[in-house]
Amino acid sequence: MSKLADWLKNPGVLAAAPASIFLLVGFAGPLLMVLGYSFMPSKTFALNSVPTLENYLSVVSDSYHISFFWSLFLAALTVILLFPICYPIAYGMAKLFGKWANLVTAFIAIPLLISENIRLFGWVLVFLKNGILDGTLQALLGVSASGLLYTVPAIVLGLVYVYLPFMLFPMVIGISMIPDPLKEAAFDLGASRWQVFREVELPLAMPGILIGAILTFILAMGSLAESKILGGQAVVMIADDIESAFTFAQNWPKGSVLSVMLIALSGLIVFVLFRRIDLDQIIGRR
Amino acid sequence: MESTGTSRITRKFIWIWTSAVILFLYIPMFAVILASFSTQRYFRFPIQSFTTKWYTKTLESLSVRDLLWTSISVAALVTVFSVLLAFFGALAFARYDWKGRKLYQRLVLLPIFFPQAVLGLALLLWFSALGITTSWQTAVFAHMIWIVPIVILIMSIQAYSFDPALEEAAFDLGATRWQVLREVTLPILAPGVVSGSIFAFLLSWGNFPLSLFSTGADQTVPEWLYAKMVSGYTPMVPTLGSLTMSSAALMLLLVYLFWLATSGRRRKAQISTSSDD
User: Which residues of A touch B113 (CB under 8 A)?
Assistant: First the structure.
């Protein structure tokens, strides 16, 4: 008992308490309740019925695997496209830009502080029929490019656009962890540019790259605005299904099941990959 | 700083690529600003004639004032509460050594890695189960679930560079716990508090997915913009969008100027993103 009392007196525990309690009430609580609702009979609004698996079974037999597939596919595609887009920038920020790196960081971070809605709406204006792209092409070349909005490529562009910083910044930290002498040694020993990249740079930068990739993947998996604003009705992503189950259909248990499945899938990926990463080393590098 | 093994062509390519991507990031912002000055009811490009009438209309609209007031109230409260919670949260994250810290570090970051729309819906369920009517006050709570962990992360970066000897010296000289907090810990973490506050305010100001499910009958600016984009489009959408963007930019600029004015004495505490370790 006194061991517990000692632990509670530690300044670290005291300092961690307010935020931990807050997140317990505001994060763990709601998620546990969603888990609870996922076992309730369809269309009930209380947690006092006998637990049942009917929702899980009905979700499997319904066509929700299509929206799960789209979410998984689009999230994976986003990560794959962002890797080559971000790597040169991250390399530059970590190794080449010197005093300019802070400015580049600011330019890339500022859009994050502007509502996603407004930025996606900007893309709508670009791709709209008679919009900026279409209008310019018509005026200059007389060709029309009116069918671009509300398609899958438009959604992919939106996802790549919105999540670029989330992939980039952890990657910068990862690449800055590569000691230059190690690369020089590899070159001296006769390694080619590609070999140095694959055998030295990539493994050493992996923790940062991995964090960025996970972050991007998870956020893209659960994204709602991109497919709604840029995709129109082209594709239904899983977050969209969850929203309509909770709101229009007023079926909390069904929405809960879909949420639980999305969380379980994302959580599995995070936990498996995160076990290998030491946060002190990455955030606290000096 | 200069890295060996990077040829001049590669360097040039990296600079051009980075500039191109930054330009790409700002395309939609320019599009919105451009559209806000168009006379026409529905956007057409090239723009035939320019006007500022939508700005006058937007600024005179009473419903827009309500929206702005709601958004500002939410963001201000989120900032104050998040910074308070995150200040101690960051000390626990980075400064103190205690059993359970590794687990705490992982769990406290979990909400950042969580789809916000799903979190918003879970909170909607939570509020209604507890019998709480959703309004802008519940939105403050909802925003904080996501923003507190982010501010903890930002402040931790500062807290890692903290030298515990400074606090110990103060204790040895007879300072109380409260005095040490006020005279030693707080000034050292001040830059983290400032950047944490900016992030908290602007992330709350621009948040949509959490607001959508947690504001009830009240409406924030991003919610209104979305509603009008989907149905009932009005040129006030790009106008209000431009206004919120420029206010965010103005705020950043002011903070940057303030930072420049005071940077001399805090340069030592600053962790450069590009330093060679």
Answer: 214-215, 218-219, 266, 270
